[in-house]
Write a structure and sequence with these properties.
5-stranded parallel beta sheet; alpha/beta; 27 helices; 7-stranded antiparallel beta sheet; 44% helix
Length: 965
């Protein structure tokens, strides 16, 4: 019983074998939370080593593993004597019937399919551990009972031998032996004492044994009367050591016969003792009882002593055997009582198990079951016990069950199979039978025990889940939004919907299993917002690279999720190519709206420049007619021409269609330039004031975007004051954001910023719309007066630069917009100072331009600076000239826009003839042309028209000397 209790208190030990760390960790956590001792192993070889070192109580075993797979591990364990009985439960993602059959053939007791429920795993582990413990208890009880029978048989044989030997002894021994063999427990002591009193002619006698407590002596007291003996009433007593007389004390202590023919002092009320003789009954040098006689008519002599001693020695083994038999009988009754208690306990235990449990004998007859079995079948236990399957089930099911019973009894081990079973309400339920044969120590099969697991709800849930997955798949495929499921560990695509496959333009089977960066965000490898940057969710614009290698702009949303116990990323995205086109169109429209505001100022400045050129040109002509010097007047004409060139450059910069190119620039000059345009464009009712006193106005920005931000804000300010006098105030100041930022700029990091403020004294913005003014297409203007994208574009530009924009407004008093730009501490781009001194050079130049006047002026100017110049107004003619004598030229200077063959095409052909020829490309409009593009072709420099001779000479010198490459 103590062994059983110790096993019940011992925490079961489970070996978990899985090569997937996540599954290994999950199963370990589930089992440890339930109090199991878990030993993890990541491979089959480690599992075998672990079992060799120490056998666990149960093994959870994955099937697919590198090296030794789960089936081989199970077979090896079942081939070993030390591990054959350990229950093995396969737990695998393989759910085909053949996979399960292979597992059971390998010796597994159960098979759990991934994904699994923690409750299912715990229930099956608990059931198989309990089955193993019950089988072990029954086998141990059988062994103990057989050992006791063997010992009892041996002892009875020994007793028989002693009795056979006693037949050769004296008659008294025969008589006493007969008494011991025939007398009942109640009569045995009295009959022995009668024989002793007869042989020794004594009146009184006492015969008894020492109890297990050495201080107690149990005996029968008898008196001889004429014609026989009688037992003195109530004289069978228990005497403790403190009440023993000297005859018992001395005889037991010295283990020798005691004889006295003198009267002995006796306690009051005790019969008078005149003579006494006592022989201790000794067995294996240990006193086990006493044989006493008293009050013989004459003295006890040596013969009496010898006879009593002989009788005592003869009685000793017989009495010992009788006592041992009694003790064994008591022990047997206690063992039977314990077994009954254990059986009741086991019955109560299995009755508490919710799964139906039953056991049968080797004849396939039910010998027991639990309450769950009664409730499942709706049949009382007494109508199940003693019956066969054909008495309980229909012939169809009974034949199946009986065939399975025969298979298990013929091949003892573990058997698991799924079937249908009738339920108490008449329906049939999906069940799994987990069964095992139990045997005697010699291997003889005694019967089988089975556990029924009702999986009907699981199958229904599985079917419902399958239907739900199919409906979800149909819903996903019906959406025009691309959906991709990505494994968070491997970054490989796990699943896609129809829209995602169509956007990528490849078959689903080719997409699934590839790394997500092959198609999604191809330039963001190693920077996953969820996995690498620790975000829970991500919304961003990025690119999708389709199968043809074309990048498609998408707006994606990524979030983490768990599917079947494994972590994935769910990414949804839409194609925003059309939206990008619309944004670009709107940006152009908004830019043109701003250019409309600039038009008046541009016209004003350009007319002033033309007036200057015409006026001083006439004065120069008059000076020549009068014989004077026209140099000063021509300098004024040249200066006005340079101002016109700068004005055109600003217009082209503001209206350019190229991509944004941010660089460190000073924004004070840009603000002043914009103010200059505004003063010429806005009516006189609007007074423009500025506050631009900053020591450093450097930011990293695109000049066009700075123009766009300021022009939009100033245009809105003018509209707010339209029809009345007002003040437009433009201010630029430096500011530092501390660690604890104001609520207006709480999203910006601390540091140094430039704050551009545009204020007006207009009507103000109502509170009910001020929170919406940065929304796309929101406008308070009348239809046709604006796009509604101005402030939205400004907000996007500023945010993209790492800044912020806020607004303060009061109805009737005006509005102020504050724009914060991060300050730049490095170098900024400086305006190039035009060379006033003409550099002279030497070499032969091929000069190509389709404008005749430009060719004439260019030749004359370059020849004045020392160069030998060949000119042409045809790109085709230039190609022929160069082809006929390519080695004669030191440099080619060509226009971009020319008929039949443009400047880039001409440059390519010339470089094919002579790859080392320096080429300078000139243009008056650089849309679609970048310095990187011409560098890839081999063109050395790109210059903008118009240029003065000092600038042309400087560029030519840099190219020829190699400084301009």
């Amino acid at each position: 019983m103590a062994s059983s209790l110790s096993q019940e208190q011992k925490r079961p030990e489970v070996l978990v074998v899985d090569d997937t760390p996540a599954s290994l960790q999950l199963l370990t956590g589930i089992l440890q939370n339930e109090g199991y001792v878990v030993r993890p192993a990541s491979s089959g070889s480690l599992a075998l080593q672990s079992v060799t070192a120490k056998a666990p109580d149960l093994i959870l075993l994955d099937v697919k593993m590198p090296g030794i797979d789960g089936y081989e591990v199970c077979r090896r364990l079942k081939d070993r004597e030390s591990s054959r009985t350990i229950p093995v439960i396969f737990i695998s993602a393989l759910d085909e019937l053949m996979d399960k059959v292979r597992g059971f053939e390998a010796g597994a007791v159960d098979y759990i399919t991934k994904p699994f429920q923690s409750g299912e795993v715990l229930a099956r582990v608990k059931t198989h551990l309990e089955l193993r413990r019950l089988q072990s208890d029954l086998e141990r009880a059988n062994v103990e009972m057989e050992e006791r029978v063997r010992r009892r048989t041996a002892e009875l044989a020994s007793l028989n031998e002693a009795l056979q030997a006693s037949e050769r002894n004296l008659n008294i021994r025969n008589r006493i032996a007969t008494i011991f063999l025939t007398a009942s427990d109640e009569e045995m002591y009295e009959e022995v004492l009668k024989a002793v009193l007869d042989e020794l002619n004594s009146r009184y006698g006492a015969f008894g044994y020492l109890a297990d407590d050495p201080g107690a002596f149990l005996h029968v007291f008898m008196e001889r009367v004429p014609g026989g003996c009688r037992r003195i009433p109530d004289e069978k007593k228990v005497f403790h050591r403190t009440t023993w007389g000297p005859i018992w004390k001395q005889s037991s202590r010295d283990q020798q016969i005691f004889c006295s023919n003198e009267p002995l002092r006796a306690p009051r009320g005790h019969r008078a003792i005149s003579r006494a003789l006592n022989a201790p009954i000794i067995h294996q040098e240990k006193p086990i009882g006493n044989l006493s006689v008293a009050n013989k008519e004459n003295d006890y002599d040596e013969n009496d002593q010898a006879l009593l001693e002989t009788i005592a020695s003869h009685i000793a083994p017989i009495l010992h055997a009788r006592l041992e038999r009694d003790r064994q009988e008591i022990a047997r009754k206690k063992a039977e009582e314990n077994l009954n208690q254990q059986f009741l306990f086991l019955q109560q235990l299995i009755d508490t198990i919710p799964n139906p449990i039953y056991f049968k004998d080797a004849g396939r007859i039910y010998r027991g079951c639990n309450k769950a079995m009664e409730e499942f079948l709706g049949v009382d236990r007494d109508k199940i016990i003693g019956k066969s399957v054909h008495d309980i089930y229909s012939k169809e099911l009974a034949d199946i069950y009986d065939r399975k019973d025969i298979e298990l009894l013929d091949h003892p081990g573990i058997q698991i199979y799924e079937s249908l079973s009738p339920y108490r309400d008449g329906t049939r339920r999906n069940v799994v039978f987990n069964r095992a044969a139990y045997c005697q120590p010699d291997g003889t099969v005694r019967g089988l025990i089975g556990v029924v697991v009702d999986i009907t709800d699981y199958r229904q849930t599985e079917e419902a889940l399958r239907g739900s997955e199919e409906r979800l798949k149909k819903i996903q495929d019906s959406l025009n939004i691309g959906i991709v499921v990505i494994d968070s560990e491997t970054r490989k695509i796990f699943d896609i919907n129809r829209a995602a496959g169509e956007m990528i333009g490849a078959p689903t089977e080719r997409i699934i299993g590839t790394v997500c960066h092959k198609y999604l965000c191809p330039g963001a490898k190693g920077a996953c917002p969820i996995a690498d940057l620790g975000r829970e969710m991500d919304n961003a614009e990025c690119a999708l690279l389709n199968e043809s290698g074309v990048e498609i702009p998408i707006l994606k949303t990524v979030t983490a999720m768990t599917l079947h116990g494994r972590k994935y990323f769910l990414e949804s995205f839409i194609n925003i190519a059309e939206q990008k086109k619309l944004e670009l169109t709107l940006a152009k429209a908004q830019k043109m709206e701003a250019i409309g505001t600039l038009a008046g100022g541009i016209a004003h400045d350009f007319n002033n420049i033309l007036s200057t050129i015409l006026g001083f040109a006439e004065l120069a002509k008059m000076q020549l007619i009068d014989g004077g010097s026209p140099e000063e007047d021509l300098d004024e004409v040249l200066g006005a021409g340079l101002r016109a060139r700068d004005l055109i450059a600003h217009i082209l910069t503001f209206s350019r269609l190229t991509e944004i190119e941010r660089q460190p620039i000073e924004i004070v000059p840009l603000v002043k330039e914009t103010v200059k345009f505004l003063k010429a464009s806005l009516p006189a009712t609007v007074e423009i004031r500025t506050g631009l006193a900053v020591s450093n106005s450097a930011v990293v920005a695109d000049p066009t975007q700075i123009h766009q931000v300021l022009m939009n804000l100033c245009t809105n300010a003018f509209h707010a004051m339209e029809g009345k006098d007002g003040v437009l105030f433009i201010e630029l100041k430096e500011m530092t954001l501390p660690d604890k930022q104001s609520s207006s700029y709480r999203d910006l990091p601390s540091g140094e910023y430039l704050q551009l403020s545009v204020s007006d004294t207009g009507h103000g913005i109502p509170k009910n719309i001020i929170d919406r003014i940065f929304d796309p297409f929101f406008t308070t203007k009348q239809r046709g007066e604006g796009t509604g994208m101005g402030l939205s574009i400004i907000h996007g530009i500023v945010k993209d630069m790492g800044g912020a924009i806020s607004v303060d407004s009061k109805i009737g008093k005006g509005t102020t917009f504050h724009v914060l730009f991060p300050k730049h501490r490095g170098d900024t781009r400086k305006l190039q100072n035009y060379q006033s001194v003409v550099r002279r050079g030497k070499g032969k130049i091929l000069f190509v331009d389709d404008e005749k006047n430009i060719v004439i002026a260019g030749r004359r100017l370059l020849e004045r600076t020392g160069y030998d110049v060949v000119t042409t107004t045809s790109s085709l003619e230039a190609y022929e000239i160069f082809k006929n004598n390519p080695g004669s030229f030191d440099l080619v200077m060509t226009d971009m826009t020319m008929p039949k063959m443009n400047g880039i095409e001409l440059s390519k052909k010339l470089l094919e003839i002579r790859p080392d020829i320096p080429v300078i490309l000139s243009t008056g409009f650089s849309a679609g042309i970048s310095r990187d593009m011409i560098a890839d072709i081999g063109i050395r420099q790109l210059v903008m028209k118009p240029m003065i001779i000092s600038e042309i000479a400087h560029v030519i010198e840099e190219v020829l000397t190699g400084r301009g490459e």
